[in-house]
Design brief:
The structure is a single chain. The chain is of the alpha/beta class and 270 residues long. The chain is 31% helix and 25% strand. Helix 3 links the parallel strand 6 and strand 7. Helix 1 packs across helix 2, helix 2 crosses helix 5 and helix 3 crosses helix 6. Its EC number is 2.4.2.1.
Length: 270
C-alpha cells in the first residue's frame, strides 16, 4: 500500500494539489458546498492511479482542490462504500492520500436514519461517537503498522474542540444540531424492524452505511476529525413505512443550507 500511496500522491501533486490543510468528504446533503469553493484543480477518480471509482448514482466521482474561507481544501465529491463491493482498504484509501498531501483536519458528512425518535428528518446530528457494525476494520491488514499505530486509540475519535465549535455555530445561527452516536452497517438494504430495535438497545441515535471506516483511518493517521449526519428518515420500528429514496434525497436537500453554514463557519474558524 505504501507504494500505491506514494504513486497516487505524486500524481496529484503534479496536477497541482499542493499543501491542502483540510479534507472534506461530501456525503449526501453537502454537494452544493462546491458552489462556495474557488476551484483551482479537479480530477475524476477514474483518472487517479490506484483510486476506486464511485458507483452510486447520486455520488459524483471527483477530487477537487481549491480555496474555501481562506483555507486550502481538498474535497471528495462522492465517497466509496463497502456495499459497492470495495474492501475497507479501498474505501479509506482517499483519506490516506489526503493526509499524505498534507491535510491535518478531516470533515465528513453523511445521510443517516434517525433511530432516536426525538430527532426528526431534515435535522442534523453531530457525531459524538460511533459503533462499527461493518464486520471488520480498515486497519486489519498486513503491514498496517508501517502507516501508523496498529492498535489505534479510539477513546475520543471525534475532536472535542471541533465539535464544540460546530455546536457554537449552530447556536449562533439557530440551527437544530443534535449530538449522538452513529452506527455504521454494511447495507445496501435498509434495516428491518428488529434491527432498528437492536440499534436502539445498543445505544445508536442514527444509522448509516459509511463514515466509520474513514474516521478509523483518520485516527490512525492522527488527523483531527468531525462528522455531521443529515437525518433523512425516521426509523420507528412500530410505524415503519417502505423506504422512499426520493424522500431521502429531498430531506438531504432541505438540510443542505444548514450543513453548508456549519462547514463554512467551522473552516473559517480554523
Amino acid at each position: 500500500m505504501l507504494k500505491y500511496i506514494e504513486e497516487t500522491a505524486e500524481y496529484l501533486e503534479e496536477k497541482g494539489f499542493k499543501s491542502p490543510e483540510i479534507g472534506i468528504i461530501l456525503g449526501t446533503g453537502l454537494g452544493q458546498l462546491l458552489n462556495h469553493i474557488e476551484i483551482l484543480k479537479e480530477v475524476s477518480y477514474n483518472h487517479i492511479p490506484n483510486f476506486p471509482t464511485a458507483t452510486v448514482e447520486f455520488h459524483k466521482g471527483k477530487l477537487i482542490y481549491g480555496n474555501l474561507e481562506g483555507k486550502k481544501v481538498i474535497v471528495m465529491q462522492g465517497r466509496f462504500h463497502l456495499y459497492e463491493g470495495y474492501t475497507l482498504q479501498d474505501v479509506t484509501f482517499p483519506v490516506r492520500i489526503m493526509e499524505k498531501l498534507g491535510i491535518k483536519t478531516l470533515l465528513v458528512s453523511n445521510a443517516a436514519g434517525a433511530i432516536n425518535l426525538n430527532f426528526k428528518k431534515g435535522e442534523l446530528m453531530l457525531i459524538d461517537d460511533h459503533i462499527n457494525l461493518q464486520g471488520s476494520s480498515p486497519l486489519a491488514f498486513k503491514g498496517v503498522s508501517l502507516l501508523g499505530e496498529r492498535f489505534t486509540d479510539m477513546s475520543a475519535p471525534y475532536d472535542k474542540k471541533l465539535n464544540n465549535t460546530f455546536e457554537s455555530i449552530a447556536k449562533t445561527h439557530n440551527i437544530t444540531l443534535h449530538k449522538g452516536v452513529y452506527a455504521s452497517v454494511v447495507g445496501p438494504q435498509l434495516e428491518t424492524r428488529a434491527e432498528y430495535r437492536m440499534l436502539k438497545i445498543i445505544g445508536a441515535d442514527a444509522v448509516g452505511m459509511s463514515t466509520v471506516p474513514e474516521i478509523i483511518v483518520a485516527n490512525h493517521l492522527n488527523l483531527k476529525v468531525a462528522a455531521v449526519s443529515v437525518l433523512t428518515d425516521e426509523c420507528d420500528p412500530d410505524n415503519l413505512e417502505p423506504v422512499n429514496i426520493d424522500d431521502i434525497i429531498a430531506n438531504a436537500a432541505k438540510a443542505e443550507p444548514n450543513m453548508i453554514t456549519l462547514f463554512k463557519e467551522l473552516i473559517n474558524s480554523l
